[in-house]
Give the backbone structure.
Amino acid sequence: MRIGELAAQAGMTRDTIRFYEKVGLVTGRRLPNGYRDFPPETVAWLQYVRTAQALGFSLAEIARNGEALREAPDTAEALSLLFEEKLQVIDSRIAELTTLRADLALRVGTGCPLRPTGGVLPGRTP
Amino acid sequence: MRIGELAAQAGMTRDTIRFYEKVGLVTGRRLPNGYRDFPPETVAWLQYVRTAQALGFSLAEIARNGEALREAPDTAEALSLLFEEKLQVIDSRIAELTTLRADLALRVGTGCPLRPTGGVLPGRTP
DNA sequence: CTAAACAGTGGACTACGCTCCAAGGTCAAG
DNA sequence: CTTGACCTTGGAGCGTAGTCCACTGTTTAG
């Protein structure tokens, strides 16, 4: 699969994919003419990248655990593990937001809603 | 209140506050010697800025609705409204994450967890 | 009076994640 | 054989959110 099709399938631009290659997020074979050639799984990988990004992971982090994946004895199992980790990240994110929500809800309707209630900004974990 | 104390109280550096002033997030009176002088409420405002940031709002957005606040007839009420809006943002964020969570949970333990299940990446709303 | 602790300015620099561009190579259709 | 779609590279530029620095001015304590 050449870059244009991959870009179309993954919903991003060719430039973005080239950039991802530069930072080690995707790895390309080359055709004899120098064109990049990607295996079809790359589409799924890029979708995963988007998911991980939505969870607040940086490209560097994603690339790092992509590395780990490639070196794992059982890829499927390793991925499952990774996903379980992300589940925890999601859960603590939700917890954070829930705290924030409660905090905000308290202030709605108060005379001076700006007064601190404590516990704001727990710090970015990822 | 001079910049150093404000910085200490709000938990950020003087440079950050000067930067925030530059982008219009805080507005400073000046003492006769040229030093910035902030009213005590600025501490609360900066805490609010941090909260809004944690919700994914950009400084520009925060500055914009800070503007709106200053022009509101009833500041407290306006803030309450703002907070209610943010509550909705939090709620849809949580919903997003919940969807993502379910999606991910599905893939954990599957033979090929990378296969798309649909509905990944709903797009950043803020 | 001097030293330390504060304040001010402008400008350079960083990291991240792209995005765009120019100049050129490759390939299939007509 | 040309046209157009596609590909290559390198490098520049951008927006966001700071961070750091040098140099200078002000205030306060000993």
User: Anything to note?
Assistant: Residues 2-4, 14, 18, 33-36 of chain B lie near DNA strand C (CB under 10 Å from a C1'). The CA atoms of residues 106 and 113 of chain B lie 8 Å apart.
